[in-house]
Structure formats: C-alpha cells, structure tokens
Amino acid sequence: MKADIHPEYHKIKVVMTDGTEYETFSTWGSAGDTMNLEIDPKSHPAWTGGNQQLMDRGGRVSKFNKRFGGLGL
After folding, report:
1. Which domains does the chain possess?
2. Model confidence at 5: pLDDT above 70
3. Transmembrane stretches, by residue range (predicted)?
4. Residue 41 near residue 20, CB atoms below 8 Å
5. Distance CA 18, CA 10 (A)
C-alpha cells in the first residue's frame, strides 16, 4: 500500500437514539470520539415500517387498481 493515502482507522463510540451505546471501528472523527445518531434503524420509518401512505396523484393508483384489481391469485 502507498503510504499516507488511507484514512486513519480507529475505535469510536456510537450512541443510538434510545441511548444504547456500542463501540466500533471507523474513519469518522478521531480515536475515542462519540457519534450521537439522530436517526437509526430503531427509529427510522424505512426500517420500522412507519405509517407511510401511498399517495394517489392524479388517480394513477385507483386507475391501476381498476384495471388490474381482479388479477389477484
């Protein structure tokens, strides 16, 4: 490997939104720093399912359901 082209890899502490902590290795910050997460897999709707609604813009979803609604297995 070439010298001085790779970032420093060190141990940091990560604090989740619910207060749980764990240590991991990262190139973020410097050795011993603490990363406080604002969004994590325990709180973000992409991982938890959330209350996402499918928006029907211009009747596209209803038009699709009208055309192909009876094709259920």
Report:
1. 1-43 (4.10.80)
2. yes
3. none
4. no
5. 24
